[in-house]
């Protein structure tokens, strides 16, 4: 009798579970790890979608590059093998070289300008159209993802103090250009090696957004922070067109609205962090300086010229439009 009752209970639970199973099980891949603001925002997005869809959509998050690096995940989105991922606007330069403009040092001074550059310029609208029609994915949200600053083992009060500074940068053209044109000695290095390199003075400094500087505890081995504000990072919320088209219109709307809301939360996390972190670093006995950035931007002009030369008419038009945004 007890065995029969147990079997009936198990059957009831199975039926109950099936009744609440999601109609759509979707995957969100990302490079950042579980302690990041990006992960918090992705969790917010997944919960918002689940709640607003009454459980019809369930989103599983795969952080820390479990599904591959950003290039791999963009390809998975293009092929319809992945549903969601993050990417910076500038990352699309791997498909369209002129998109590098989004990461040119000092080209985009703030997040409002970043949004206008993507959505309100002919260049940005053209890029969105190509992402949609040629890469089979859509941008459904844009968030602020921090601005890169410089830590060092000596104070940086002006561009003159950058001269000869062995600055660790990622092996990316725009970061290398920043270091080179302001007079530093660019030193590409794997991110995992940076703390020890700073500690042993193999390099004199590094550049990253403030939340990254805190998370990696670079303040333990670098006692100077210069607010160089050289590259603003955005973060796009991307969905595969195959995924979006598979959803009925009401659920498409929920996904888009949830992405917009998550992007706002994402932006707030980074902006709140940046406001608090200046004080945090000061409490850790880090000297914070604010050098005049006009000479920094002026020093990058040769790189702007090189960008136009490399990207031709498309780059020239983008530069004209973007320059007007920050005037």
TrEMBL record:
Principal subcellular localisation of the protein: other
Cleaved signal peptide residues: 1-21
Superkingdom field: Bacteria
Gene3D superfamilies hit by this protein: Bacterial extracellular solute-binding protein, family 7
Pfam families documented for this protein: DctP
Stretches that traverse the bilayer: none
PANTHER family (UniProt xref): PTHR33376, SIALIC ACID-BINDING PERIPLASMIC PROTEIN SIAP
Family: Belongs to the bacterial solute-binding protein 7 family.
Stated name of the protein: TRAP dicarboxylate transporter subunit DctP
Source organism (scientific name): Actinobacillus porcinus
Taxon lineage: Bacteria, Pseudomonadati, Pseudomonadota, Gammaproteobacteria, Pasteurellales
Primary gene name: siaP
